[in-house]
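Review session, final week

We close the course with one last complete record, chosen because it touches almost every idea we covered. It is NAD(P)-dependent dehydrogenase (Short-subunit alcohol dehydrogenase family), a protein from Kribbella pratensis with 247 residues. Go through it on your own first, then we will talk.
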Amino acid sequence: MNRSVLVTGASRGIGAAAARAFAAAGDRVAIHYSASADSAAQVLKELPGSGHLTVQADLADPAAIEAMVSDAATALGGIDVLVNNAGIYHPHRIRETTYAEWQQAWADTLAVNLVGPSNVTWCAVRHMSRGGRIVNVSSRGAFRGEPNQPAYGASKAAIVSFTQSLARALGPEGIAVTAIAPGWTVTDMAAVNLAGDGYDRRRLESPLERVADPSEVAAAILYLASREAEFATGTVLDFNGGSYLRM
Ligand code: NAD
């Protein structure tokens, strides 16, 4: 499609799958990473097409984000699509954490999962024009709660509201903003929960009796970012294998 795409957290998991999907569709992709330069370089090497690059920033660092988005926009000649995918998911059970640990978990999680994407978006829209697309990666946990990671659930619920606000703010400029709320997907983030008998428990939440592959989530992100999906602006796509039907 020959668009300029920035995907955060694209060195692995859903972000890497999204980078592959956009590149396969003919787009140029900036593969954002935080610490894993080697993995990002590997994703870059494997992408079809040309004009792709890697860009680095810790999403908890607003100055690094500004420089990263500027690097991506300069190399790609603007930004047509932003995928706010990077995120963290660290357990912090209310009965099992100290008060200090609890505060740290909230600060870290909100910094990367909420304030980070909001800062990336602020910077990216300055390089985006009519026809632009923003896809935010939320989670099923936004709607069901996350008993062991309450800050994660709250951050993903806030991403839904952020999506709606930005859809209203940017709609008159012809920029559509959507979110996807995946269920269990086979990535490093879900590895602990999908290990051992956890896998069977989680796959049976879905009537399909399986969890998602990152490529499936990536295909849905590609659709939400497409020109044809403009009228879906403000939408949060449930992508959890129909798991609500078994609850
Ligand atoms: P993952 O852990 O494989 O990938 C997360 C990415 O975020 C990595 O590339 C990581 O480097 C990046 N990241 C983490 N901290 C960062 C920081 N401080 N600065 C910059 N980048 C940082 O997990 P994933 O499953 O591919 O997660 C992608 C998105 O999907 C996340 O937003 C996650 O919350 C969401 N999600 C995942 C699942 C699932 O079951 N895997 C379900 C629902 C939602």
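Two points worth writing down before the exam:
The radius of gyration is 17 Å.
Residues 99-125 form the longest helix (27 residues).
Good luck, everyone.
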